[in-house]
Amino acid sequence: MRRRRVIEIGEGRLTGRVWCLCLLLSAILLFQGIGNAAAPEAKRVMILHSLGNDFRPWGEYARTIRSELTRQSRWPVDMLDHSLVTARSDENPEGPFVDYLSALYGRRPPDLIICVGAPAAAFVQRHRSRLFPAIPVVMTAVEQRRIQFDSLTENDAVVAVKHDIPASLDTILRVLPRTKNIVIINGASPNEKFWRGEMQREAKPFEGRVRFQWFDDVPYEVALKKAASLPPDTAIFWMLMNVDAAGVVYEGDSGLKKLYAVANAPIFSYDDGFFGQEIVGGPMHSVLEGSRSTAAVAVRILGGEKAGDIKTPPSGYAAPKFDWRQLQRWSISERVLPPGSTVYFRVPTAWEKYRWLIAVVGAVVLLQASLISVLLYERRRRKLAEFEARQRIAELAHVNRFTLAGELTASIAHELNQPLGSILVNTETATLMLDSPPLDVGELREILSDIRRDDQRASEVIRRLRSLLKRAPFEAREIDLNETVREVLDLVSALSHARGVALEDVLTGSPLVVKADNIQLQQVLINLIVNAIDAMQPLDKSPRRITVRTAQDRDFAEIEIADHGPGIPDGKLNQVFEPFYTTKPNGMGMGLSIARTIVEVHGGQISAENQAGQGALFRIRLPLARVSASDLAAS
Questions:
Q1: How many CA atoms lie within 13 A of 631 on its CB side?
Q2: Pick the CATH number of 165-284+317-347 from 2.60.130.10, 3.40.50.2300, 3.60.110.10, 3.30.70.1060
Q3: HSE, side-chain direction, 13 A CA sphere, residue 618
Q4: Residues 385-427: pLDDT tens digits?
Q5: How far is CA 358 from CA 355, 368, 370, 372, in A?
C-alpha cells in the first residue's frame, strides 16, 4: 500500500511538471506572435542612379536622401541601388537593363522607386509600361525641363528643381566685375549635350558683355591644359563633367579636382553638391533641402498616399553661399557679395579663436605696463630726490668746509706768516747787499732761492685752502689715498702744532688707488683729525698724539685715525654719525654725518670704536679702483 501511494504521488508530481512546461511554451509562442504582429514590415525602396552611384551632384543627393529617409520613415527601409550605365552614351541599348530589372523584381517588386537625376527620370518615363506600371515613382534632383509632365501617371511624383543660369552669370559679373571671358565646363553625354543647348540660349543676353568658351568638344585632358593658361579676367562655370568627348567617365569629384588643381581662374557652379573645396560659390541648389523634400514625399507615399496627388513645386536656388578660402585666394571682397550671402569655412581670427585668452593676457600686459610705468616714474622721482639730496649734502659739506677753514684760520695764518716773514727778511737783506758793495753774487743767489722757496710754500698753503673751500661738483677719479692723507696732514699740521698735538702717519709702501673725489675725502679726513685734536684737552696727562694709518685689506683700502683722548661716551657709538649729535659746546653736529654720507657715496664704510684706555679710533674702508662691481658684491 505504501509503495503504491508513493508511485501515485510520483505520477502526480510528474503530471504537474508537464502541465507547467506546456503552459510556459504556450506563453512564449503567444508573446512571439504578438511581437511579430507588432513589428512593422520593412519597406523596399529602389534607388535608380542616373549614371552611377558616385556622380556629382546626384551622388550627393542620393546619400542625403538615404540619410533623410532613414530619419523620417516610421518603418524599416531596405534600400536597393541600381545605376543607369546606359545613360553615359546614346549608343547603349536600354532593353537588356529593363529586362534585368523586370526579372529581378518580378516576384517581389519594390514599394517605391526613387529616380535620382534627369537620365534616371527619363529612363523610367520611357519604360513605365514595362517597368512596374503600378509601382509609385519619385523623380528627384532633376531640372523641370527634363520632365515630360504629359507622360506622368497617377503613380508618379516629381520633386524638381529650376535652374537660373542668368542668376549664376550675374553673380560672376557682380563679384568679378572685370570678367571678360567665361569658360563653360560641360561633358558630352546626352544629358550634358542637352544642357549645352539650354545654356547657350540663356547666355545670349550676356554675349555683349563677356565672351563664352566651350571645351566639351575636346577630351577633358586637353581642356585641362587650356584651363591652366586662361587669359586674365576669366571665370569658369562648372556645369557637368560626367563623360568627356573621348568617352572617358569621371566619377565622384575627380573631374572637378583635376580642374581645380590646374585652373588659373575662379570656378563657379549652380549646385552646392559641388560646393566645399573648389567652388567659389553663389546662388545654388541646396542638396539638403531637396533631399529632405524628397524623403518627405517618399514617406507620404509609403504611408499610403497616392504619388500623383502629391504636388511639389520646383525649387529654385537657395540663398547665396561662398567659400571664404576661395574669396581669399581670388581677392574677392565680401562687400561685393549679393545681399543675404553666407560665407562658409571662414578661418577664425586670433581674436575670435582666443578672445578670452587675449583679453586676459592683454589685461595682464596692461597691468604690468602700468606697474612698470609707475615704477619708472618712482625711479625717476627717486633719482631726482637723490640728486637733490646730493646737492643739499654738497652744499652742507661746503658750509662744513668753511667751518673747518674757520677753525684752521689761526694755524693757516701762522703758516703763511712764516714764509712771508722769511721773504721780507731775505728781501731786506738783498737790499742791504745791493747798497753795500762789493756785491756777493753767490750769496744773493742763495737769498733769491730762499725767497722763491718761501713763495712756493705760501702758494701751496693758499692752494690747499682754495681747494678746500671751492664749490665744485662731485668728480670721481683715480687718486692715491696715501697722497691725499699727506696733503691733509700738511694742511692741519699748523693747527696741531698750535694745539700741542703730534701727528704721526703710518702709510703703506705701495700706492692705494681708489676712485673718489679728492676734495670730499680731504674734508672727511680733516673733520676726523680736527675732532681728534679737539677731543684731547690741554690739561690731559695722556700723550697728545694722533696716528693716521693706511692699509690694504684684500679689495679695500683702509684709513685709521686714532687719538689718545677720552674716547666716545658709552652707549653713544651708534649715534656719533647721526645728524645734530655733538659733544662740542658750540658744535652743529653735522660733521660726522656729512663724513658718513661722503664715504657711503664712494661705496665705502665708516665706523667708530673705543680703544682700551687709548681713546677713539675711526676706520674708513674704500673699494680699490681695480676691483670690479661684481667682485665687490661677491666680497
A1: 9
A2: 3.40.50.2300
A3: 24
A4: 877 766 666 666 666 655 665 555 655 665 566 567 667 766 8
A5: 5, 15, 18, 20
